[in-house]
Write a structure and sequence with these properties.
transmembrane, globular, transmembrane helix, membrane, single chain, 0% strand, mainly alpha, 458 residues
């Protein structure tokens, strides 16, 4: 029995992939029997995945499942229909399943290595390195998301050994986390962005210019402040350090990445428009095809095949946290919408509909407080959109979308229990609360810029 159980947990990716494939099939060929089967599978996946989830996600799962069941019973709904309330977030899990493919093609094309050379080049002081390392993390994040954090931090750790430990820890946690958060707000593969686009009904292209503006303002000011803070600290280099960077070669690599991203966005938008699909589903469908074609175009098919299989299998097999969160959240939100409590929760938001700036500030506060106490931004966003949808007729949905995205991702720099801060804490061997304290002013500023742009568009 123990051997079988061990085999199941080491091959969860097969179960996940089959379930999500059935779900995507029903998007094009709706079938009530298959949809019910997917709901049943969702319940099974929650039970199987619960054991492998972290403590935080287990708690969130129990809270959403218990309250969801209470709402379900309160609404006097037959239990035979329960599976139909479990699968509304399958699209998010389908997207998370294919994301490793995009990361793999960047690795296969060795774009990550080329860009990391930016940080290995000789610089006189930490102020200049701050901008360079932030830029590198920013560019990489657009394609490989959180993986960019690990790559950048590893390079900085090895190249800054001669810098005092305290300064090195602060430097790494600031430059990498901030660049990551600011880059994620416009990334089409970021789950927060995808949820917001579908929940607000606003096209991604409508949000993109304003998200890029916010990103540019925040990262530019952070570079100015970072350079000023660290410019007095000189950097000593070992003999093996790269003395000069081939600017032309590096520029070509960056242009290739930008062009690839532009083509990817165009294909996603066209696919969604032609097939009448949601943004999340469009991205999930395009990524495998785009990654394959890009690898072939780069003549890296063999390397991509090996890297992609390994990355996809490992990442998909470790999706327990998201499986228990999203599927229990489906039950909670769908059951809540069937009760009168749904209208009660909306009242505080509707009360301030004549003073939208209060609502925008409240959104940031909710995400910030949630991040500080350990509530994942995705859990917060799932509940928040359930109660603010009636405001779309009174407040510009673009404003709400911008504030939700910037506020949610600003927590990536301060969430002491979050993935990004935890990763940085382990990499730099410092207390996560210290990282939170160092980045709190930045997080508040980041959110304030988002609110300012959102208020301007009201």
């Amino acid at each position: 029995m123990g051997t079988f159980s061990s085999w199941v947990y080491s091959h969860l990716y097969i179960l996940y992939a089959l379930t999500f494939s059935f779900y995507l099939f029903t998007i094009f060929f709706p079938n009530e029997i298959i949809q019910y089967f997917i709901g049943v599978m969702a319940i099974i996946l929650v039970f199987i995945s619960f054991k492998g989830a972290s403590k935080l996600f287990k708690i969130l799962c129990l809270i959403f499942s218990f309250t969801g069941l209470l709402f379900y019973i309160y609404a006097s709904l037959p239990f035979v229909y329960l599976p139909m309330y479990m699968s509304s977030n399958m699209s998010l899990l389908s997207l998370l399943t294919v994301l490793p493919l995009m990361t793999s093609v960047v690795h296969a094309g060795r774009f990550d290595r080329r860009l990391n050379e930016l940080m290995k080049g000789k610089v006189d002081n930490l102020g200049n390195l701050y901008i360079r390392s932030s830029m590198t993390t920013y560019l990489l994040t657009g394609f490989i998301s959180i993986s960019a954090l690990t790559l950048s931090q590893e390079v900085l750790q090895s190249s800054l050994q001669k810098i005092p430990q305290k300064i090195r820890k602060i430097f790494i946690s600031k430059t990498t986390l901030r660049a990551l958060a600011v880059a994620l707000i416009w990334s089409p593969t970021e789950i927060i962005v995808a949820i917001t686009v579908d929940s607000t009904g606003i096209s991604y292209l409508s949000l993109l210019p304003w998200l890029l503006l916010c990103s540019f303002i925040v990262i530019s000011l952070d570079w100015i402040m970072g350079k000023r803070s660290f410019s007095s600290i000189n950097v000593e280099h070992d003999e093996g350090v790269i003395q000069n960077i081939d600017v032309k070669k590096m520029t070509i690599q960056i242009i290739k990445l930008v062009m690839a991203l532009a083509i990817f966005l165009i294909v996603v938008v066209l696919t969604g428009s032609l097939l009448q699909l949601s943004f999340i589903i469009s991205v999930a469908i395009v990524i495998p095809v785009f990654s394959l074609c890009w690898a072939i175009l780069l003549k890296r098919w063999k390397g991509f095949k090996v890297i992609a299989w390994k990355n996809w299998r490992e990442r998909t097999n470790k999706m327990q946290n998201f499986v228990v969160l999203f599927l229990s959240l489906s039950l909670f939100s769908n059951s809540l919408s069937e009760t009168s409590f749904h209208d009660v929760i909306k009242q505080p938001f509707l009360a301030f509909s004549d003073n939208p700036i209060v609502i925008l500030i409240f959104i940031q506060v909710v995400f910030l407080l949630g991040g500080l106490i350990g509530v994942h931004a995705i859990a917060t966003i799932g509940v928040l959109f359930e109660v603010i949808q009636p405001l779309y007729g009174m407040i510009n949905p673009i404003s709400i979308g911008i504030v939700v995205i910037t506020s949610a991702l600003a927590t990536a720099t301060v969430g002491a229990y979050g993935v990004t801060v935890t990763m940085t804490s382990v990499a730099t061997q410092q207390n996560p609360y210290r990282i939170t304290l160092n980045n709190l002013p930045f997080s508040l500023f980041f959110g304030a810029v988002g609110i300012s742009i959102g208020y301007f568009l009201l």
